[in-house]
Design a protein that fits this description.
Number of helices of chain B: 12
Number of domains of chain A: 1
Number of strands of chain A: 0
Shape of chain B: elongated
Radius of gyration of chain A: 24 Å
Strand content of chain B: 5-15%
Number of helices of chain A: 6
Distance between the termini of chain A: 92 Å
Order of helices and strands of chain B: HHEHEEEHHHHHHHHHEEEE
CATH superfamily of chain A: LemA-like domain
Oligomer: heterodimer
Distance between the termini of chain B: 68 Å
Strand content of chain A: under 5%
Largest sheet of chain B: 4 strands, mixed
Radius of gyration of chain B: 29 Å
Structural class of chain B: alpha+beta
Shape of chain A: rod-shaped
Largest interface: A-B, 22 and 21 residues
CATH topology of chain A: de novo design (two linked rop proteins)
């Protein structure tokens, strides 16, 4: 009789362990998905803001055609790749960030532009969107790290293997140019 | 992060339980004394507590917001503030955007409220909003959002309600004792057995001691919980923003101000980023403060060289205190990987200017004015700039800074 109870107890403990770990994994996977959606929202917002910015700036920056074209081109490339994987997309968005950073740095030397209310509002929106992108990336990567730790660490890795939870991919924005400071010329 | 919250919850739960035990003991002994039944006292204590809790739970945030005369703002009213709150919401992984409020008061402060993360509000005084640059504002909002994320608001509400109940019970009991003392003693003398009389004396003594000590003890525990949560919120803010310097320099500005917030009181004090009731010249490091001293919080944040994780905060805390015991739980500190600090944001147009910028601008303007009045300028090699008034007789002047003779 006692043996039966012990077996029952072991089965119950095992099931509880299974359920706890499984739910934990699902929760983390959903958090990763949610965090990815958050990045997506912010990147889309940036793509939407850029044509507006280029239109506002064009009239003032007649000598910066190259800079403006670089931003538009980087934006179009990034938008085309918006359904690609994290790695490829990160590269395109990184290039857009660099081009945009250069444009905003150049804008500093146009006093008329800096007095334009429309431009100031756009600049605030863009600065904030850049921050939101990096914060959502930060949260996404933290979530992926937690999820990956759980899928690879004992004992939850057993459950992850049983139900085929796959490790997530980090979202890195890595462009070689990004390590250099943007070149600004005040002429 | 979750480990952090969980283990802090256990520690806080012990302290909350201590306040609850105090409340129950007080109720029991007061009941024994006044109605000769401990259960009756327990019931009264429980009813008072339940009513206050229900009000605090369902109306607490709106009461607090209307008491502090905060008004709700949208994304178009204060774009920078709204954006920064949204940035911190994203960084902390909060599901829902908190409501943003402004308090029109020149005093510098900010607080967060809301019983759960999906019904949160963040409020900031207009004075503080004006004083802070973007990085500093991020630090302050990160601190407030982490109060929401770590469920400090709910915890502090539970504690302050219990503390309030204890204070109310003790106050009424002491009034009854003073004005109704005769009735009590007559009732006890009508009973004849000596054993019951001795028990009465013991109960009276315990009741009296509890009546005096319970409010004080409860308050000390309340302060202890509050200070612990402030450190945790600072550490979380550094982790969210990846930039401890932002919060550090914001705290410095907050600490330098001497204005008291008009609409704050003792009960709502732990909700604010710094103690709104602080007075000049009083050191806040003693036990009877809701917040750790600002200078110490700044020092810890500045000591977090090169890292923004909880373990960096923990290390900095130990360094500042030169003590073996840290402030955060070990599970949280060991769990996270290395986190690096991001660089400062570039200076923003229309933002806060530093003093040197103002000085150079003033100098430029005065130079223009002098030139208009036909002054001539001579630059010395030591960096000084001499302004020569029109009609100056000599053809050279002595630079009083370095002693060279300058030709005009």
């Amino acid at each position: 009789m006692i043996a039966v109870w012990i077996i029952v107890a072991i089965v119950v403990i095992f099931l509880a362990f299974l359920a706890g770990n499984y739910n934990g994994l699902v929760g983390l996977r959903n958090q990763v998905k949610n965090a990815w959606a958050q990045i997506d929202v912010q990147l889309k917002r940036r793509h939407d803001l850029i044509p507006n910015l280029v239109e506002t700036v064009r009239g003032y920056m007649t000598h910066e055609r190259g800079t403006l074209e670089a931003v538009t081109k980087a934006r179009n490339v990034a938008q085309q790749l918006s359904s690609a994987g994290a790695g490829e997309r990160g590269k395109a968005e990184g290039e857009l960030s660099v081009a945009l950073g250069r444009l905003l740095a150049v804008a500093e030397s146009y006093p008329d532009l800096k007095a334009n209310q429309n431009f100031l509002a756009l600049q605030e929106e863009l600065t904030s969107t850049e921050n939101k992108i990096s914060f959502s990336r930060q949260f996404y990567n933290d979530s992926v790290l937690k999820f990956n730790n759980k899928t690879q660490m004992f004992p939850s890795n057993i459950i992850a293997g049983m139900f085929s939870f796959k490790a997530g991919e980090f979202f890195e924005v890595t462009v070689p140019e990004q390590r250099e400071a943007p070149k600004v010329s005040f002429t | 992060m979750w480990e952090q919250i969980r283990s802090n919850q256990i520690r806080s739960a012990v302290l909350v339980a201590a306040i609850a035990v105090l409340l129950l003991l007080l109720g029991y002994f007061l009941g024994l004394y006044f109605f000769s039944s401990g259960i009756g006292g327990l019931v009264i204590a429980f009813v008072v507590w339940a009513i206050m809790s229900l009000i605090a739970y369902y109306q607490g945030d709106s009461i607090l917001l209307s008491l502090s005369r905060a008004r709700k703002i949208g994304p178009d009213d204060y774009p920078r503030l709204y954006n920064v709150v949204e940035e911190m919401k994203i960084a902390s992984g909060l599901e829902k955007m908190p409501d943003v409020y402004i308090i029109d008061d020149p005093a510098l402060n900010a607080f967060a409220t809301g019983r759960d993360p999906s019904r949160a509000s963040v409020a900031i005084t207009s004075g503080l909003l004006q004083k802070l640059n973007r990085d500093e504002l991020q630090g302050v909002i990160g601190h407030e959002i982490s109060h929401v994320k770590n469920r400090d608001v709910l915890l502090m509400a539970i504690c302050s309600v219990m503390l309030g109940t204890i204070v109310i019970l003790a106050w009424y009991a002491s009034r009854f004792l003073i004005f109704g003392g005769m009735a009590g003693s007559r009732r006890s003398s009508s009973r004849d057995s000596g054993g019951a009389g001795a028990a009465q004396v013991v109960i009276l003594a315990v009741g009296l001691i509890l009546m005096i000590l319970a409010p004080i003890l409860a308050q000390l525990i309340y302060y202890a919980i509050s200070r612990k949560r402030e450190y945790l919120a600072d550490a979380s803010s550094a982790l969210y923003t990846r930039y401890p310097e932002g919060l550090a320099s914001a705290l410095e500005k907050l600490g330098a101000s001497t204005q008291q917030l008009k609409s704050a009181n003792q009960a709502t004090a732990p909700m604010y980023i710094i103690n709104p009731l602080h007075k000049e010249g009083i050191k806040a490091s003693d036990l009877t403060s809701t917040h750790p001293p600002i200078s110490e919080r700044v020092r810890i944040l500045r000591t977090m060289a090169g890292g923004a994780s909880f373990s960096d905060y923990e290390k900095a805390y130990r360094q500042v205190h030169s003590a073996g015991r840290g402030i955060l739980s070990t599970a949280a500190v060991s769990g996270a990987g290395a986190v690096s600090v991001r660089p400062a944001s570039p200076a923003e147009p229309g933002g806060v200017e530093s003093v040197s910028e103002k000085v150079t601008r003033t100098r430029e303007v005065s130079d223009v004015m002098l030139r208009l009045n036909k002054y001539r300028t001579v630059d010395c090699t030591c960096g000084a700039k001499w302004k020569i008034p029109p009609g100056f007789p000599d053809d050279s002047i002595l630079c009083t800074r370095c002693g060279r003779r300058l030709k005009i």
